[in-house]
User: Fold CLN6 protein from Cinclus mexicanus.
Amino acid sequence: SQGNAALVRENGCASSRSCSMALCPSVPSRHGAVKAEDTFKTTPFHLDLWFYFTLQNWVLDFGRPIAMIILPLEWFPLNKPSAGDYFHMAYNVITPFLLLKLIERSPKTLPRSMVYVSIITFVMGASIHLVGDSVNHRLIFSGYQHHLSVRENPIIRNLKPETLIDSFELLYYYDEYLGHSMWYIPFFLILFIYFTGCFTPVLEQSRMPLAALLLVGPSSLYYWYLVTEGQIFILFIFTFFAMMALVMHQRRKGLVLDSNGLFLFHSFIITLLLIALWVGWLWNDRILRKKYPGVIYIPEPWAFYTLHMNNLHEAKGAL
Assistant:
């Protein structure tokens, strides 16, 4: 009887375990990174998200310094936030929201803790950059030249006391180094985390629809601006190499990129080609060479503008 009772208890526990597994097919780990139901699903191209993502990048990021220069100065006095600052504020809210929505649509369960920490760091870094970039771009109206270092700028080197120059260098550090690092490292990390879920065993799903082909050009051009203006080529190239290594590793398993993965991967490839063309075009520019010494020479578009295009506009105005 004791043996029968033990057998009944064992069968009951087994059936209870099977029942609980049937009712709860996904058991989250402490890190929220594993699901038993993680299988490769058909994922359509996220036209809405990629379109909004590309559009807001162009308008709110690339367009903010242009809006600040074009709009009349009387509308936004130098001691108040500019139109570009409001663009930057909107970018700091909309971009993390779109990144979170992109992560949600991944067919693979991704490490949530890493995603949340990355988003928080992204918002903090972009906010630091907002302040530093706002002041630095406002200095253009006072004659600041982005192709020169802080101490070489005529409006800076004559400041008294000289400790004020250190303050402007601190501002430049927050803008160009700390702000960029805390902004772009989480940004590319989130894109790579999403990219890890963009694989499928179905070869027919590994193709880009027409909408993706139309968006890949504007997306690549924006990434070119992001890498060159942000001076983050090392971060970009390491992310690209990691994506290439992952693609080759997954191919050995019989997996290929889906339409979203192809869109992101091709955008990075075209971005790399655009950077090579940009560097080749300005290879012999002596002034920019002095501004960007070292092995990696990638001039910023706004430094090129203040050096060449701004002078051209002033000459036209004098005529």
In short: The beta strands are 199-200, 256-257. The chain has eleven helices and two strands.
